[in-house]
Amino acid sequence: MSKNSAAYWGKRQAQTYKVGEKKIDSFYRDLRKVFNQAKEEIEEVIKDFYIRYADNNGLSYTMAQKELSKREIKGLEDFIRHVYATMGTRDREVINKSIKARVTRYEALQMQIEAILDNLYDYHFKAEGEETLKDVYKSSYERTWYNIDIYNGVHKEFAQVNVRDIEQLIAYPFNGANYSDRLWKQKEHMITKLKENITTMLVQGKHPKDLSKDFAKIFNTKEYEAYRLLHTESSFMIEQGTLRAYKEDGVEQYRILATLDIKTSEICRKQDNEVYDIDKYVTGVTAPPFHPFCRTTTVPYYGESEGTRVARNPLSDKGMEVPASMSYKEWHSKYVK
User: Fold this and answer.
1) What is the pLDDT, as a whole number, of residue 96?
2) What is the pTM of this model?
3) Can you spell out the DSSP letters for 130-177?
4) CA nearest neighbour of 131 among 178, 163, 173, 174
């Protein structure tokens, strides 16, 4: 390999990161459509609720507390059964787990909303999101292994990726809570906020159309949280796939490679160019991601600092090359200050 090995690894790992990022962005575009669909379905359910039970004075909180008739309970069961069927759930015990013999109108509305959000979070966000994260991991592992082979000029056979190992990584709480737990918290918080808005509507005697702006804010916030979660989880999976390739291909040390631009976080600035032994690898401490939306990556370190690395010119915002040994602190001092 040429002297400019730093440039080689910088470019290759940046490409690996971008491939993973594209997979997440593609999934997120589809997920946003599901978010919007869920919002429209919830608004439609609330609209139907209002039309069905409102009188000349509108719909009061007291009227919403009246119990459903047997016929209305049957309609509620049919609605929930239809929603859960799209998730592949047809078990009657699951469908009717929260439907009691005596249900108020307001409780029925809450059940409908929760069913719609279960479909959004548990099926689309969780199940499909986990499949995307598995794909991100495999891609990172195979690309890193290939890049090491090209660098060393020796080809080795890929080891088979065990799906169960990836599932354990997805369940690993590397930043305090795992993917599933964070989704559950997001869903529960959304349910709480929607309930608060609906209750206010009933107490104040407002029309459902008055909820539109508030609902838009809630869903926009949750979409942002969804992207932040996906981005952070994918960064973790990219680095875990990379780490596995390092270990299986005999890499003993790795170097932290932060992005040389003014957007880089303080912790990543400090970590840039630090070299660690593979057995000292700890996510968030000696390896990225160090924070949400972390762009920092790692590259194999073979005791060399020759060549160049890519940076961004703070004035023109165009790419530029700097010495491979230059740390973020040195780059910032020379080109930003």
Assistant:
1) 57
2) 0.88
3) HHHHHHHHHHHHHHHHHHHHHHHT---PPPPPPHHHHHHHHT--TTSS
4) 163
Residue with tokens 């981005």: 231
Most distant pair of Cα atoms in the chain: their distance: 82
User: What are 253's strand-pairing partners?
Assistant: 277
The dihedral region occupied by 291, where left means phi > 0, alpha psi between -120 and 50, and beta the remainder, is beta
Residue 29: exposure state from Cβ atoms within 10 A (0-12, 13-18, ≥19): exposed
Q: How many CA atoms lie within 13 A of 34 on its CB side?
A: 21
Q: Which of 284, 268, 287 is nearest to 276 (CA)?
A: 287
First to last CA, the chain: 35
Give the span between the Cα atoms of 143 and 16, in whole angstroms. 7
Structure tokens at 221: 């916030």
Out of 195-204, 227-236, 305-314, least confident range: 305-314
